[in-house]
Amino acid sequence: MAHALIPAIRNHAEVAAKPLGLVVSSVAIHAHSQPLAVVVAICRVDEGDVSIADCQRLSRSLEVLLDKAGLFTTAFVLEVSSPGLGEDLVSDRDFQSFRGFPVELHRQHQGDHDVIRGTLMGRDEQVVLLNRKGRIIRVSRADVFQVRLTTGESS
């Protein structure tokens, strides 16, 4: 069950993040920690890497807002970080960074959904390229609706 304070914390985090060019990707509360930990994950609006300075700026702003709101009756620790690597490849940068990694490509083709597993070779404006057991597979980007990192190629 989600902690009751998460929506309020998220609202304050979004208010603090917007002028900094940041977006809140998740908010969690680790109630088992002593003191309680509020964990906020952020991304940059420009899709660049989240820096330590970004985290520090948001942490300072958000801490002030949370203290003023009086949401907590006990001490808490605020942790601001990037969400880390997701499994889904979305940006051109993702496709470049993970070239040579095993992926699962999900496509909608002629009304059917299928999954192609292989090694990512890259993508351009027209196609996503996979190496499947030494054979290069070209999949139209128009048909692709998801590309995910996997642990290895399977038949």
Describe the structure.
By secondary structure, the protein is of the alpha+beta class. The protein folds into two domains: 6-81, GMP Synthetase, Chain A, domain 3 (2-Layer Sandwich); 92-149, SH3 type barrels. It is 23% helix and 40% strand. The chain is built from three helices and eight strands. It has helices at 6-17, 52-69, 92-97, and strands at 22-30, 36-44, 76-81, 102-109, 112-123, 127-132, 135-140, 144-149. A five-stranded antiparallel sheet has the order 7-6-5-4-8. Strands 1-2-3 form a three-stranded mixed sheet, covered by helices on one side. A hairpin with a 5-residue loop joins strand 1 (22-30) and strand 2 (36-44). Helix 1 (6-17) packs across helix 2 (52-69). The longest helix has 18 residues, at 52-69. The radius of gyration is 20 Å and the shape is elongated. It starts with 5 loop residues before the first helix and ends in a 6-residue tail after the last strand. The relative contact order is 0.13.
